[in-house]
Amino acid sequence: MYSFHNFMLPFQWSIHGYDDRAFSEQVGLRNIHRTDMSSWEHVTCPEDSAEKNDLYDERNYFFDFVHNALYDTGREDTLLWHFERKETRSGCVSYVIDCGSVVYELKVKAINCSLTYLSGSSFLVASRMETYTSERSSSSGL
């Protein structure tokens, strides 16, 4: 048996060392210094063709004037930065939770984070998580 889950975790962010500056500088995306050594990859356009099709349909649904607030444009003046965890691209991220008589395996398909400009707020999304449940029999040896 399996099920699908999406987890959305909102949080606040700020840039260390900017506490005494104007709020717009404290939460300005241009003041964040990214590194290539991070496990997070800045993504402005999906690489997967299925995701590209979904995004195309989604963008047609919303009016053009809200696109800058919903999507990472990749431009300097973007209102949102979109990041994805690199590990999930390999398809090997999973968690096994042993509850005695039941074992749950959670396969994580994507972990995304979008930082929003001038708000200091964001959300972390673990999406398309597949949970597989297996009943443990007394003779299974697990």
Would you give an account of this structure?
The chain is mainly beta and 142 residues long. The protein has helices spanning 23-26, 49-61, 67-70, and strands at residues 2-12, 40-42, 80-85, 94-98, 102-107, 110-116, 121-135. Strands 1, 2, 3, 4, 5, 6 and 7 form a 7-stranded antiparallel sheet that branches. The longest helix is centred in the middle third of the chain and has 13 residues, at 49-61. The two termini are 18 Å apart. The model is unreliable at 138-142 (pLDDT under 50).
* Number of distinct beta strands: 7
Category by helix and strand content: mainly beta
**pLDDT averaged residue by residue:** 78
What is the H/E string? EHEHHEEEEE
Q: Describe the sheet with the most strands.
A: 7 strands, antiparallel
Task: State which percent range the strand residues make up.
Answer: 35-45%
Percent helix, as a range, is 10-25%
How big is the Rg?
Answer: 19 Å
**Principal-axes shape call:** globular
- Number of helices, where a helix is a run of at least 4 consecutive DSSP H or I residues: 3
Low-confidence stretches: 138-142
Distance between the termini: 18 Å
Helix-strand blueprint:
Layout: E1 2-12, H1 23-26, E2 40-42, H2 49-61, H3 67-70, E3 80-85, E4 94-98, E5 102-107, E6 110-116, E7 121-135
Antiparallel strand pairs: 1-7, 2-3, 3-6, 4-5, 5-7, 6-7
Give a brief description.
By secondary structure, the protein is mostly beta strands. It has helices spanning about 25, 50-60, 65-70, and strands at about 1-10, 40, 80-85, 95-100, 100-105, 110-115, 120-135. A hairpin with a 3-residue loop joins strand 4 and strand 5 (about 100-105).
